[in-house]
Specification:
single chain; 15 strands; hydrolase; Metallo-beta-lactamase, Chain A; UPF0173_UPF0282_UlaG_hydrolase; RibonucZ/Hydroxyglut_hydro; 249 residues; UPF0173; seven-stranded mixed β-sheet; 5 helices; hydrolase activity
C-alpha cells in the first residue's frame, strides 16, 4: 500500500475502498463515509473496521449497503435517512442534520453541504431520504475568517457540478483535498469534475464513483487531462482500492 505524506496542521489519514467509500481518521477519531464494500476495488472485510462515526451522503443502495455491519457506530445523515437506518438496519446511535449544519464529532467538525442528485430509499413505499449531501470534515469549526493552518477534506457525494462549490464550499469551507465523483451517467463525468476541482482550489483531488458498474466505467487519465486543461495546479491522485493517502503534520 502506497502512502503519501504532506505537511499540514493535523493528521488526516484517508483510505479509499472503492466507489464512494472512504475512511477518514482525524487524530483519534475514525469516520467511515458511505459504507459499500461490494466493489471490484477492495479486499477489506467490513468486520476489520471499527469507525466511531459513519457518514451517509444519501440513501441509494450503493452507499448504505453495508450500514448494518456497523451497528455500534454513531451514524450521521439527514433525519429521514437516520430514521430509515434505525428501522431497517438496527442502527441505535444517530445524529440527524441537514444542509449547512456543522456538528462537532470527536476530534473534528463535520459540515453537511449540498449535492445535486436523487435520494430515494429502497423501500416498499418508495420513501425519500431528504436532500442528498456531501461532507466537509475539518480540523476547526468553519468561520468567515480564513484559517490557513486548519485542514479540511471534502467528500462531494454523488453530485453534478454546482455553483456552491465555487461560491461556498471552496472559499468558505476551504478544503485542502477533495474526493469527487467522475464516473459520469449518474454523477459528474471527468470534464465537470475537473471544473469542480478548479473551483474548489484544492491541493489534492481524488476521483471516486467509477468502474464499479458498466455505466460508470471510465479512463481516469481523462480526468487527469481535464484537470490540467482547466489550468489548475491541483495534484490528481488516483488511488487503488484499500490504498491510503496521509495528510500529516
Amino acid at each position: 500500500m502506497r502512502e503519501t505524506v504532506r505537511a499540514v496542521a493535523m493528521t488526516f489519514d484517508l483510505t479509499w475502498y472503492g466507489h464512494s467509500t472512504w475512511s477518514v481518521t482525524v487524530d483519534d477519531t475514525e469516520f467511515l463515509i458511505d459504507p459499500f464494500f461490494d466493489t471490484p476495488f477492495t479486499d477489506t472485510d467490513p468486520a476489520e473496521l471499527d469507525p466511531d462515526y459513519v457518514l451517509i451522503t444519501h440513501g441509494h443502495a450503493d452507499h448504505i449497503g453495508d450500514a448494518g455491519r456497523f451497528e455500534t457506530a454513531h451514524f450521521v445523515s439527514t433525519p429521514e435517512i437516520t430514521s430509515y437506518l434505525a428501522d431497517n438496519y438496527g442502527i441505535e446511535h444517530a445524529t440527524g442534520m441537514n444542509l449547512g449544519g456543522t456538528v462537532e464529532l470527536g476530534d473534528a467538525f463535520v459540515t453537511m453541504v449540498r449535492a445535486d442528485h436523487s435520494n430515494g430509499l429502497d423501500t416498499e413505499y418508495d420513501a425519500s431520504g431528504g436532500m442528498p449531501a456531501g461532507y466537509v470534515i475539518s480540523e476547526t469549526k468553519p468561520t468567515q475568517e480564513t484559517d490557513a493552518d486548519s485542514t479540511a477534506f471534502y467528500h462531494a457525494g454523488d453530485t453534478s457540478l454546482h455553483s456552491e462549490m465555487k461560491d461556498v464550499i471552496g472559499p468558505f469551507l476551504e478544503p485542502d483535498a477533495a474526493a469527487v465523483p467522475v464516473g459520469d451517467h449518474f454523477t459528474m463525468g471527468p470534464a465537470q469534475a475537473a471544473i469542480a476541482v478548479d473551483w474548489l482550489d484544492v491541493d489534492v483531488a481524488f476521483p471516486m464513483h467509477y468502474d464499479t458498474f458498466p455505466p460508470i466505467e471510465i479512463d481516469t487519465d481523462e480526468f487527469v487531462r481535464e484537470v490540467k486543461a482547466t489550468g489548475s495546479d491541483t495534484e490528481v491522485v488516483v488511488l487503488d482500492g484499500d490504498e491510503s493517502y496521509t495528510l500529516a503534520e
